[in-house]
Amino acid sequence: MPADYARLIDAETWAFIRETETWYPHETATFTIARQREVYDAMCRAFHRGYPEGIAARDEALGGVPCRIYDPTRPGAVTVVYYHGGGLVVGGLESHDDVCAEICAGTGYRVVSADYRLCPEHRHPAAFDDALAVAYAAAERFGQPIVLAGDSQGGNLAATVAHAMRGSDVEVRGQVLIYPGLGGDKTGASYVFHANAPMLTRDDLDFYRSIRYEDGIEPRADPTASPLRDTDFSGLPPTVAIGAECDPLCDDATEYAARIRAAGGQALAWVEPGLVHGYLRARVTVTRARESFARIKSAISALAEGHLPAPPA
Known about the structure:
Blueprint: H1 5-8, H2 11-23, H3 33-47, E1 56-62, E2 65-71, E3 79-83, H4 97-107, E4 110-114, H5 126-142, E5 146-151, H6 153-164, E6 172-178, H7 189-193, H8 202-210, E7 239-246, H9 250-262, E8 267-276, H10 287-304
Parallel strand pairs: 3-4, 3-5, 5-6, 6-7, 7-8
Antiparallel strand pairs: 1-2, 2-4
Helix pairs in contact: 5-6
């Protein structure tokens, strides 16, 4: 039985979905790559909310990767390294500019946004290589510890970096993964039940996966591509993983946290009721998204301070 989105999704969120569709129609994944990027960039500009007072940003390469660095008036000791979403195909420094500025303001920590290379021009492992280089360079440039964060495929990159940095001399204080795609079972519950969800479908996911790899085939056991396909979940930093209920990727967040806990680590996951993929752009107009974004900022702050946040009430 398909999901009953008329019941699950409230009126505010439907208004956000309809507004998004005026900029980013259902068939966008069938456009040329250049056209997809034009459409996505225009949508992000339409939803841009500006910077909070007191936040300054500058562009600077870290580890050879273009980055945007956000500083509050008196930055705290932790640096947040943020990886934007976009299926590893679209997005960049502009797409999540205001989100990063608000995280900076809300946590009081410096935020580094990474402009990693995109597919299909730069297939796997290019984005992973860039993401890892930025994390190391940010720790060297600004000091330790760091917190990793990202949404959608940016959440994937944050997790792959966390796996790769185990045993290094960089202290990763934690990671916050927002509706992440972590390489979960495509026949699993959320992938099937929400295969035709608003904002992101299983067909969309298949498209993004198909152009990520040279042969179009996802590796079976490559944690630099799919963290859920790692065989070892020990030694990972404290983790908060957040799923959107009406999203085929929803189960990836809860499954990943469960794997970390089973390996003796600290991990918390929750599912945001009635929310859809990409809801960060709804954080001003949709109550549920605004409350979730507040929890995300609190989670980053808690991990930076050395502990897991309290779970949502």
